[in-house]
């Protein structure tokens, strides 16, 4: 079976889908399943080749992971401003406790947040990890979140651990 090119599908290739099965073939022919922290470097430096089986409803397809930058961006190994909407910088954040928060003293509370730095939040997980690094915030990455745009402003509704919101 001739593998297809994952790179040819660009961002359509589901790099992070849980049902995707990665197969790494080392220089010496050793085959291993799955990926680890070193996979990207080994594949990038030619120490291994990376493939993925994409299970379909009727048949599975074998892909060669030939665009390793796209693989790394999808997995958050290198920063991707297009995918996340977020620059790799210190965000300028304005926020307040959601005025409709019914339990403002609970451990997790709803906040309303705006970004004055021009970023948009397309990927909550990336924003949460940036805010953890920049301000020590714990933004919830499961459960609902929202985005409201009007009069040229975008306001996000997020949940965060109250005591982490120190500034
Ligand atoms: Zn920003």
Question: Can you describe what's shown?
Answer:
The chain has 167 residues and is α+β, with helices and mostly antiparallel strands. It folds into 2 domains: 75 residues, no CATH class; 83 residues, no CATH class. Helices cover 17% and strands 31% of the residues. The protein has 4 helices and 9 strands, in the order βββαββααββαββ. The strands form 2 sheets. The protein has a 5-stranded mixed sheet. Strand 2 and strand 3 form a beta hairpin. The chain is elongated, with a radius of gyration of 20 Å. The model has no long low-confidence stretch (mean pLDDT 93). The site of zinc ion (ZN) has 7 residues, from loops.
Number of discrete helical segments: 4
As a percent range, the share of strand residues is: 25-35%
* Largest β sheet strand count, sense and barrel closure: 5 strands, mixed
What overall form do the CA principal axes indicate?
A: elongated
Mean pLDDT metric: 93
């Amino acid at each position: 079976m001739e593998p297809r090119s994952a790179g040819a599908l660009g961002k359509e290739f589901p790099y992070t889908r849980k049902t995707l099965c990665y197969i790494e073939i080392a220089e010496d022919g050793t085959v291993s399943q799955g990926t680890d922290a070193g996979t990207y470097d080994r594949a990038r430096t030619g120490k291994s080749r990376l493939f993925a089986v994409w299970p379909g409803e009727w048949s599975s397809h074998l892909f060669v992971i030939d665009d390793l930058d796209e693989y790394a961006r999808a997995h958050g190994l290198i920063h991707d401003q297009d995918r996340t909407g977020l620059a790799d910088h210190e965000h300028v954040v304005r926020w307040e406790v959601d005025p409709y928060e019914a339990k403002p003293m609970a451990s997790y509370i709803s906040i309303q947040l705006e970004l004055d730095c021009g970023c948009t939040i397309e990927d909550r997980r990336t924003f949460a990890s940036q805010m953890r690094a920049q301000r020590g915030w714990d933004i919830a990455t499961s459960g609902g979140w929202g985005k409201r745009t009007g009069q040229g402003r975008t306001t996000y509704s997020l949940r965060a651990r109250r005591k982490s919101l120190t500034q």
